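As described in the Methods, two query proteins were run sequentially through the folding procedure within a single session, without resetting any intermediate state between them. The first query and its resulting structure tokens are shown here.
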Amino acid sequence: MKRSRLGWVLLFAALPALAEDAAPKRPKLDLTPKRVDESPAALSKSLDEALAAGSFENALYAYRSLVYATGAEDAARLGKVAHLALVDDMRHGKNWIRLGAAEALARRGDAEAVALLRSEVSNTAAKPVFRLRAIEVLGEIRDAAALPVLAPLPFDPARSAPERLAAADSLLALGDVGSASYLVGLLAGPRGPDRLRAAEILGERKVTVVDALRRAAQVEGDSDLHIAALRGLALQGDAEALSTLRRDFGENPELVLPVIESRAVAPAPGGEGTPPEEVPQPTRKVDVREVVLRLKLAHALFDLGDPRPVPYVAKVIREGSLPGNQGLLAARIAKFDPALGLELLRVVLADSDPDSVAYAAEELVRLKHPEGVVEALSATYRWSKSTDTSASGPRQRPVEALSRSQLPAAIPLLREALADPEATIRIAAASGLARLGEAEGLTELRRILDGGQPADALRAAEALVDIGSTAPTPTSPAR
């Protein structure tokens, strides 16, 4: 199962309930220049010396002093300051902060961070969820040196089920098939998420366990396992499995299906006083459970390069108000039928679901058809903000999509989102502005890096490290 590069950010949602896990908040630094007569050249030299010495606090002080002296931010140098912040968090932070910083650095090839993740896997005193994330990241970055640490885990009963599954997946990603027997054993076990995940891993990693997957596909009463096992077989070229998936999906199935419902029918004339009778009557409506099942089959067939589900999925999108991320569905159609996909992506832009709208918008930008994207995302953000200010998720998705779009027309909405009460939304907005060369984005990220909550400062640091190597240096003054 694919995970986003910022998967660990999702785990920070638990931080408010885990006060003991928070890193000590960095002491607020007095960053007002003490020697106002010092020249920009001297301040620049002080910054370079602090960066070379690896001192985060001194580097941040020197950088802020330089901004005061010159009136301009510098994306490249601020990115280097942020890198020191990540190192500082990795070495001195606690729990999620320490682990999140290590992940961010490990994904950038930092040997110290990778070694820390390996040690976290073996740390039996750590919380299982911390070990789980370390296991996942080591597999995602393909750390071959982690093989001796990961190899025993699938067969260790002292480990949690998610740890054992993640270890098996990471080992297979690294080319070690020794854990396949553990996954095959789960296929023969009781129904549940572990059995389903085992089938998914075996299929995605294309492990040659044909008999085990065929038996799993024949298990009665578990459609998810049936689909996962057939998909895994078909990914390995099993023509019979692909044929079964096609047969299960049907030949251009109808979206509106006949169903039998009981309706009250008035008594015949002369039967006054008799209560209405409940009689079965056929009607036609959308069977949501049927839609959910067919969409699962459609995704499996799409994964296999089969366009058969396109007409049905198009009907689902046009019907609206049905399960599934409509933007994702339209994007999948676009890979087979670009013209129809573009049409449906624009249909989804008018949806009320923030996730669907954001996904459709990002796909339109990727396909270089951004017309209407900024307007739709801006409307979704403002609508979400007006309807429920306590839930940040629906507001965050459109801002993140605009941030990644790098469309100059997004600047007004991103500036508006800088005033959002939720720090994660301000970080997304500031990141987008900084990538577009707007100094205020860098300034906001720097403020959060300096005085924000530990989890927010960590997010800001990672954003700044990324921006530092790609964003143009803003020319407008920022203090």
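Immediately afterward, the second query was submitted; its sequence and tokens are:
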Amino acid sequence: MRTSSSLRRIAPVVLLSLVACGRGEMPIDPEGVARYGAFRYEEGATVNMTGGGSASAISTAAVVLPPAGGAAAPQPGVAEPEPQGGAGPRGKKGAKYEVIEVTDGGTLKITCKVTSMPDQAEIPFNKDKEGCGHPGMKNERAVVDPATMGLANCVVWLVDISKGKDFEGELAEKGRTVILDQKGCQYVPHVSLVRTGSKLAVKNSDPVQHNVKSFLNNRATLQFNLMSSSNSLLDPSDETTLSKSGNYLLFCDIHFWMTGYIRAVAHPYHAVTGADGVATLTKVPAGTYKVGCWHEGMVLKVVQAGAEVTGYEPSADFEEAPQDVTVTAGGTSEVTFSINPR
């Protein structure tokens, strides 16, 4: 039984959630509430972990209710880690990013490496092998160049930049439609970078049905859950508009090995490392910055009951401690992140 002091502590939060729900201001994912106690992501708010847990479990902001009855049962088929945030949406002290003309900016080369080769064993599928076109897949969570140990699909960014260049290239278009494909029973691209406010069209290139279920930053905040018929294309909608900065997690409730990530960003100093483990940021105003680095967990454990594959368990994501770097006008600076794949 809760003490009266506990009730007094929880009551305002519960009241807030009930009022907001009555106004239609927040979506509540019952699975997320039951499992994590969190009911809404709020950009710029403060993490409230008074009901238990670790402050490092959620690096973005969320309002958290104390878990009811202890830890919830795991979801069948897949046990996902608590992904870290690291969207870096607003620069210094929460200030909105300011676009300025950068006339003599520097270049920042960021390299992401592993300290040892992660498991490269093929991951077997437990259903729809013919429709997926193959019986399994290489571990797409750890794409490493064996010659250099460079790690692809690291998201890197300037954590504390408050002003600089505008978006360039494809990201220059506000509200751009981007396509997420489901091909070979994998999300393509596996990790992508988009501008906040982009609209997502969901394509299914496979002859089997999928569903794409997306959460923002953690499994407590459901963004959308769409059925995706074979060989189809779903046009963008309000649901699939990525209006908040953050890490959009992708899952399929039909094929549990399918995971992917879309990082929506509010300033252009973000990049995803290529096959060589390198990303480059250009036109960086001269100054000293903190550089952030995120990568998904590199292990996807296959769960078996005898010879039958019953599920898949990804390891926890990596969010490395930010590194300081000084960028000089017209110069090139370098930062290297070395990650133990565990």
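The first helix runs from residue 4 to 22. We note this only descriptively and draw no conclusion about the first query from it.
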